[in-house]
Amino acid sequence: MKICRISGALLDGAGLRRLRDFHWADPVIVPTGDSVPLDEALLIAPVTPGKIVAVGRNYADHAKELGNDVPAEPILFLKPPSALNSPGGAIDMPAVSSRVDFEGELAIVIGRRAKNVDPAGWREYVFGFTCANDVTARDLQKRDVQFTRGKGFDTFCPLGPWIETELDPSDLAIRTRVNGETRQDARTSMMIFSPAALVAFVSGIMTLEPGDVILTGTPAGVGPLAAGDTVEVEIEGIGTLRNYTRKG
């Protein structure tokens, strides 16, 4: 099933069925009889995370294209919740940056409080998966060395269009298109650190709360965006996250 948020809804064919009393602290899915046609709905990000934990260089070919070594353990950074963006939302291009890149990624949505998770039981802590775009001011990232400014601008974390709860993320096609042209084309099986390994690693450092998000890294093919572009992240079994860019 696919979950989106009109304060909680279930995607059922071409319609959205509202959920009764959906709370991330106890994410029980109980649909009501109320429904809205999908083409009449304006979707917002399907989750409001308390924290967004991102993983760098989790595909060897991406590390290579940036001239970096393949890491021996996951490289983590945080994107602020204020970077959250919705499906169809505008990505604002900051005036202080001369290069803003797309990075299509699989996102893990946490469903239960998680601390020191055993990789063998990781899935019981995960609510589902969605598409993400880890938008990056690449020039600022390189200039600053650390990632906070280059990754942290408002609108720099589109998520959506919904959360898929019933999915094996181990070998999914992931593609990013800009103005209809494919720029990234890979599979999640190419990750260096699997989703199971990432949930275990991150939860060994910080407690993950329901609704928190882990961005699992981007494959090779990242590149710049220009104002007026349309960027799409498509993941097999989930759907397509579509956004456009504008001058900030």
Quick overview of this protein structure:
This protein has 248 residues and is mainly beta. The protein folds into two domains: 1-42, no CATH class; 43-247, Alpha-Beta Complex (Fumarylacetoacetate hydrolase, domain 2), CATH 3.90.850.
Task: Outline the structure in words.
This protein has 248 residues and is mainly beta. The protein has 2 domains: 1-42, no CATH class; 43-247, Alpha-Beta Complex (Fumarylacetoacetate hydrolase, domain 2), CATH 3.90.850. The chain contains 4 helices and 19 strands. It has helices spanning 60-65, 138-144, 148-151, 195-203; strands spanning 2-4, 9-12, 15-19, 31-37, 52-56, 75-79, 84-85, 90-93, 100-102, 104-110, 126-133, 136-137, 157-164, 173-178, 181-187, 213-215, 223-225, 230-235, 239-247. Strand 1 (2-4) and strand 2 form a beta hairpin. The model has no long low-confidence stretch (mean pLDDT 93).
Strand content: 35-45%
- The CATH architecture term of the largest domain is Alpha-Beta Complex
Major sheet, described briefly? 11 strands, mixed
* Overall helicity: 10-25%
- The topology string of helices and strands comes to EEEEEHEEEEEEEHHEEEHEEEE
Number of domains as seen in the coordinates = 2
Q: Would you tell me the structural class of the helices and strands? A: mainly beta
Q: Name the CATH homologous superfamily of the largest domain.
A: Fumarylacetoacetase-like, C-terminal domain
Number of separate helices? 4
CATH top level assignment of the largest domain? Alpha Beta
Measured on Cα atoms, how large is the radius of gyration?
A: 17 Å
How many DSSP E strands?
A: 19
